């Protein structure tokens, strides 16, 4: 008779995700995973397959839990400029927490693996596209509500905001300074205010 697995699959998957997040794929050995997950080698292989299969499932878990939670307000039907501001202001607390000092899991994976792992690169690309799409949605609403200039380049702004998030998550690994984070976020958000001002035309024709 097969032994009953005496562990919660989602709990051990969460622990695996955090372990890959902290140490990276190459830096996470099977032994480190077993210790973090609190299961034996047989249970790991029976439940998740090999290390790579577990890693890919950890990425999917991160997407469904962490990214979903972070994007919820930006993806809401009525999301606008206020949702963008709230998202960035909330980043100060999220980035200053112990876990996110490991950086962004998706960004870490992209830097470590995406140059030579096409499947992982595809998954990371999809995640970043989701973030950019959420910003684009909120920016379009803000534009229709008159909170952003009617001629603002929404696609470029969405890409800019997505890049700023990734940059902040890399920076916090090196220097998790709350004051610096606030300054960068305030400068980022000032872009939304500046594009709402009338553009100065060049009156010095050649």
Polypeptide structure, described:
The protein contains nine helices and no strands. By secondary structure, the chain is an all-alpha fold. The protein has a domain at 63-194: Tetracycline Repressor, domain 2 (Orthogonal Bundle). The model is unreliable at 197-206 (pLDDT under 50).
CATH topology of one domain, by name, is Tetracycline Repressor, domain 2
Structural class: mainly alpha
- Low-pLDDT segments: 197-206
**Spatial shape:** elongated
Name of the CATH class of one domain: Mainly Alpha
Per DSSP E runs of 2 or more residues, the count of β-strands stands at: 0
Strand content: under 5%
**CATH superfamily name of one domain?**
Tetracycline Repressor, domain 2
Average pLDDT, all residues: 87
CATH architecture of one domain: Orthogonal Bundle
- Helicity, in percent? over 70%
Report the sheet with the most strands, covering strand number, pairing sense and barrel closure: none
Distinctive features:
disordered C terminus; 9 helices; 206 residues; Tetracycline Repressor, domain 2; mainly alpha
Tell me the layout of helices and strands.
Layout: H1 9-23, H2 30-37, H3 41-48, H4 51-75, H5 81-96, H6 105-113, H7 118-144, H8 154-174, H9 178-194
Question: What's this model, at a glance?
Answer:
The protein is mainly α and 206 residues long.
């Amino acid at each position: 008779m097969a032994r009953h697995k005496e562990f919660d699959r989602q709990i051990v998957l969460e622990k695996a995700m955090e372990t890959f997040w902290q140490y990276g794929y190459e830096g996470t050995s099977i032994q480190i995973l077993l210790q973090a997950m609190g299961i034996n080698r047989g249970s790991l292989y029976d439940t998740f397959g090999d290390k790579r299969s577990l890693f890919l499932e950890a990425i999917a878990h991160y997407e469904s839990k962490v990214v979903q939670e972070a994007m919820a307000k930006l993806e809401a039907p009525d999301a606008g400029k206020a949702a963008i501001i709230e998202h960035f202001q909330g980043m100060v607390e999220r980035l200053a927490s112990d876990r996110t000092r490991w950086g962004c899991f998706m960004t870490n994976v992209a830097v470590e693996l995406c140059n030579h792992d096409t499947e992982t690169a595809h998954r990371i690309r999809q995640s970043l596209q989701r973030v950019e799409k959420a910003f684009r949605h909120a920016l379009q609403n803000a534009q229709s509500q008159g909170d952003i200039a009617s001629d603002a380049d929404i696609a470029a702004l969405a890409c800019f905001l997505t890049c700023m998030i990734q940059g902040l998550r890399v920076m916090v690994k090196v220097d998790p300074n709350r004051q610096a984070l606030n300054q960068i976020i305030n400068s980022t958000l000032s872009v939304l205010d500046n594009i709402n001002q009338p553009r100065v035309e060049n009156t010095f024709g050649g």
